[in-house]
Amino acid sequence: MGNWRPVVWFKSQWATLSKPSKHYSLGFLTAGGFVAGIMFWGGFNTALEATNTEKFCTSCHEMRDNVFQELKSTIHYSNRSGVRATCPDCHVPHQWTDKIARKMQASKEVWGKIFGTINTREKFLEKRRELAEHEWLRLKTNDSLECRNCHNFQFMDFTRQSPRAQGMHSTALASGEKTCIDCHKGIAHQLPDMSGVEGWQ
Question: What parts of the chain have a pLDDT lower than 50?
Answer without folding.
Answer: none
